[in-house]
Amino acid sequence: MNKHSWITVASLMLALAVGIGAFGAHGLQPILEANGRLETFETAVKYHFYHALGILVLAIWNTLQPTLKNIKLSYWLLVIGILIFSGSLYVLSITGITWLGAITPLGGVAFIAGWLNLIRVKA
Fold first, then answer.
1. β-bridge mates for residue 51, sequence order
2. CA 119 → CA 7, 51, 54, 69, 90, distances in Å?
3. What is the per-residue pLDDT for 75?
4. Which of 25, 62, 88, 119 is exposed most, by the fewest CB atoms within 10 A?
5. Cβ neighbours of residue 26 under 8 Å, at least 6 residues apart?
6. How far is it, in rounded angstroms, from Cα 58 to Cα 41?
7. Does residue 3 surpass a pLDDT of 80?
8. What is the pTM of this model?
9. CA-atom Rg of the chain in angstroms
């Protein structure tokens, strides 16, 4: 994928974060409050939003400096982190399937690795 595609991915991920957050606040709130998982859902939305915004910042940086090397790994790790970390928390919050909490840290590791990979990025 090229740097412009990553702007599209980031934009879609950000729109999805807003939509999921709004759905949770309005459509799912009674369910999430009843099972005590509203805070977990909110954490998932926050991390989803922050890291989608991070992808957008990286894509803009890459557009301004098209010679950047090693940045693609950060894009992918942040996307994987959103899918695993936030995705597992979304499903856990709604369904109560608690074993998903065991894979959530893998998404956190992907987030950390994505940000640490930026150390390797060279112009």
1. none
2. 21, 17, 15, 11, 31
3. 97
4. 119
5. none
6. 26
7. no
8. 0.94
9. 16
